[in-house]
Design a protein that fits this description.
The complex is a heterodimer of chains A (about 290) and B (about 425).
Chain A: H1 2-26, H2 30-51, H3 57-79, H4 85-107, H5 115-120, E1 130-134, E2 137-140, H6 141-159, H7 161-169, H8 171-176, H9 181-222, H10 226-251, H11 255-286
Antiparallel strand pairs in A: 1-2
Helix pairs in contact in A: 1-6, 1-9, 1-10, 2-3, 2-4, 2-9, 3-4, 3-9, 6-9, 9-10, 9-11, 10-11
Chain B: H1 3-40, H2 46-65, H3 70-94, H4 99-123, H5 134-137, H6 145-164, H7 166-174, H8 176-181, H9 186-208, H10 210-225, H11 231-253, H12 261-279, H13 285-311, E1 319-320, H14 321-326, H15 335-344, E2 348-351, E3 354-357, H16 359-382, H17 391-397, H18 403-412
Antiparallel strand pairs in B: 1-3, 2-3
Helix pairs in contact in B: 1-6, 1-9, 1-10, 1-11, 2-3, 2-4, 2-9, 2-10, 3-4, 3-9, 6-9, 9-10, 10-11, 10-12, 11-12, 13-15, 13-16, 16-17
The chains are: A mainly alpha (about 290), B mainly alpha (about 425).
Chain lengths: ~290, ~425
């Protein structure tokens, strides 16, 4: 049963990240996901100091808020200061992360929160926190939260599909059609922030980035249709989670790390397969 | 405790502080200098990738040798950091994926490999492994003389190499194709720059940790960029911002318990960079806002003067204040404020709700009308634009025509006296 619980949690994170990551990959904004996942640290800590508990909605909200604050900061540096985008991202998240570490090491002796858990969380621990959903049916409480977030994301993607699609692929047309680029930007950023926050607690920031970038990147090598991309990326994420989990078991090593490795290997395989197919195609067309 | 013991304690404390301060200062100088090129090549986030990617190298080095020798660590880190940079370049060249996706993927997969190896070492119960993960989060407080020497060496290498290859590196950062055309071996230069960057990161990570190392590379350069347009000065400022932040951050963190050095250094870096961004002489945010406001005031002033010229019949008669405010061209402008400003400059007088241009004001208003009408004539003569297409363009251009351009236009148009609308061009 424990295997199932961990795989379920990882798969849910994978699907959430695939939904958001596909848009990020298309918008060339994956590194913002990286930035958010580090920048949540001060938000979590301040929310914890205010509320006094580590797992509740207040902390979640605090984290999501500081994630959004990071994106606002990045926007400000890029648009108003006219600093190049990559540097804006780098400056913003390192500053927020540094503030978070300072706060925690100064005032957080009793908080069960450190930079290690932020970086590579402990998905193995999800099985310790099992909740009865209805009589005789148990689930890790982490995965219940993830399911709720999945529902929110699905709703947002389905209802906002047109807006997200337009602002992603043809912002100029979207603007002329009266679709607000800014609004959809922040809708997406809120989604990414929410995803990152509920995920990194169980799988760590690094696996969140693997999930945000990896499966959508692999899927993008295979298709350019957004709908197919979303499904394909989710599927790839789930398969990688299952393989990664058993790999970790076999190696007796970190689950998050192993899933990252599986994602990396899958990418390399697909990358070379596509290269090979391209070469064959060009040979055929030459003949 | 005797006085002697206390004194030795004090010395010891200060000695540690001295080592840490010196160490972080030198390290930040080294990374600020090499980071300038990382920044200019728009590869700011590659620092993030490298600092995560050194982990597998470090753990493999430990697994192979079984000892915690900084030299082996650095060699391992250098190797895996360079592999990561190569992977990023290779995938970027051969796929349609964008840089950000490739960076994020490379970063997380390399780090994943590192974590798997690290957890394997930890669970194998190797006694010597304890503290290996301090490599991840930095251990500036436990810096020793050897570390400082190491930082000094990398700083020296960076400064000397950049001094020697300054021209090549600069051209590479601003215009790679041009550099190639001049016969520079850009591929070799790029690799060389990558080696310097990876080496700096590999050495620096143990002091400030994986996440914050990226800041040491780019934050000083970002701040310095707003202070100057010269590459030499930018290198100097970047190094200085780094060194000062390193020293100040170390001192701040020594003032209390639970004050980590790395994060404080990053906070200092950000503060200094932010000061540069705000107060940079030409490119700073405040300078830019001030310039924009100056331009706006100038345009508003000239528009009011122009309206006055037309309404007062070349400044001959006075103009009713309320009529002026209702003038078409001054809609939605704060006319009263603008008039007050113009009065301060002695360009007009306000008497009982009547506006009168002074001699100076008459000259100024004539000038702007002249520029407007000259431009209209120029457009109609040289671009064959219809009369009703001229005005809007001239509305924008009239404010930026310098006396030289004006003289040139006048000669070109052979000292005209009528514009295309048959209005007189005043001199």
């Amino acid at each position: 049963m424990n295997d199932f619980y961990v795989i379920l949690t990882a798969s849910l994170v994978a699907i959430n990240c695939a939904l958001m990551g596909s848009f990020l990959v298309m918008r060339k904004m994956v590194m913002i996901g990286d930035a958010i996942s580090h920048a949540v640290l001060p938000g979590i800590f301040i929310a914890y100091m205010v509320s006094g508990v580590t797992t509740n909605l207040v902390v979640l909200a605090g984290a999501a808020l500081s994630g959004i604050l990071a994106t606002v900061l990045i926007e400000w540096f890029t648009k108003k200061v006219r600093l190049q985008n990559d540097a804006s991202i780098g400056i913003s998240y390192t500053l927020l992360f540094a503030l978070g570490v300072i706060l925690i090491s100064r005032y957080g002796q009793k908080v069960d929160l450190d930079q290690e858990c932020v970086l590579y969380g402990d998905i193995e621990l999800t099985v310790l926190n099992i909740r009865e959903i209805f009589s005789g049916f148990y689930l890790p409480s982490q995965s219940v939260v993830l399911m709720a977030v999945l529902a929110i994301l699905l709703l947002a993607v389905i209802l906002g599909y047109k807006g997200l699609l337009l602002t992603t692929f043809d912002p100029a047309f979207a603007a002329s059609a009266g679709v607000s680029i800014g609004v959809w930007h922040y809708v997406l950023m809120s989604g990414v922030s929410l995803t990152t926050v509920v995920s990194f607690d169980s799988v760590g920031a690094i696996l969140v980035i693997s999930f945000l970038a990896g499966p959508p990147a692999i899927a993008y090598l295979l298709t350019e249709r957004l709908k197919t991309l979303l499904f394909l990326a989710s599927g790839i994420g789930v398969i990688c989670s299952i393989l990664g989990y058993y790999l970790a078991k076999a190696w007796d090593a970190s689950v998050a790390g192993s899933i990252s490795i599986v994602i990396g290997v899958s990418f390399v395989l697909v990358f070379f397969a596509v290269q090979l197919a391209k070469r064959k195609q060009s040979v055929i067309s030459l003949e | 405790m005797s006085f002697g013991a206390e004194f030795i304690d004090y010395l010891n404390y200060n000695y540690t502080l001295l080592i840490v301060t010196l160490g972080t200062g030198i390290l930040c100088l080294a990374s600020g200098v090499v980071g300038t090129f990382t920044f200019l090549r728009k590869r700011a986030l590659i620092g993030d990738v490298i600092s995560h990617a050194v982990l597998p190298g470090v753990t493999i080095a430990f697994m192979l040798t079984g000892v915690k020798d900084p030299l082996y660590f650095i060699l391992g880190a250098l190797a895996s950091g360079l592999v990561a940079v190569w992977v990023v370049d290779m995938v970027q060249k051969h796929s349609k994926l964008k840089p950000d996706t490739i960076l994020a993927l490379t970063l997380s997969v390399f780090f994943g490999v590192g974590i798997v190896l690290l957890t394997r070492i930890q669970r194998s119960g190797n006694a010597a492994q304890s503290g290996l993960d301090s490599f991840l989060f930095g251990k500036a407080a436990s810096m020793n003389v050897l570390d400082v020497q190491l930082f000094g060496a990398i700083a020296l290498i960076n400064v000397v190499c950049i001094f020697i290859f300054l021209r090549g590196f600069t051209l590479l950062s601003f215009d790679e194709q041009y550099a190639k055309g001049l016969g520079f071996k850009t591929g070799w230069l790029k690799t060389f720059l990558s080696v310097l960057t990876v080496l700096t990161v590999a050495i620096g990570v143990q002091a400030v940790g994986v996440v914050l190392m990226a800041a040491l590379l780019i934050t000083p350069a970002a701040g310095a960029r707003f202070l100057t347009n010269s590459i030499r000065k930018m290198l100097l400022f970047s190094g200085l911002i780094g060194a000062i932040s390193g020293i100040v951050g170390a001192v701040i963190s020594s003032t209390g318990t639970g004050m980590p050095t790395g994060p404080w250094v990053v906070v200092c870096l950000s503060v200094l960079a932010f000061i540069g961004i705000l107060f940079g002489k030409e490119k700073g945010l405040i300078a830019r806002i001030r310039l924009r406001n100056q331009n706006k005031t100038k345009i508003n002033n000239e528009n009011v003067l122009k309206a006055l010229y037309k309404m007062s019949d070349d400044g001959q008669s006075s103009v009713n204040l309320n009529d002026l405010k209702k003038h078409d061209s001054l809609e939605s402008l704060p006319v009263q404020t603008i008039l007050n400003g113009l009065r301060k400059d002695d360009l007009l007088e306000l008497v009982k709700g009547q506006v009168v241009l002074t001699e100076q004001g008459r000259i100024a208003s004539r000038e702007i009308v002249r520029k407007h009408r000259l431009w209209e004539l120029y457009l109609s003569k040289y671009f064959q634009l219809k009369a009703d297409h001229l005005h809007d363009d001239a509305e924008g251009i009239e404010h930026v025509i310098t006396p030289e351009i004006e003289r040139h236009l006048t000669q070109l148009l052979e000292y005209p006296d009528k514009d295309p609308h048959e209005s007189e061009i005043p001199y």
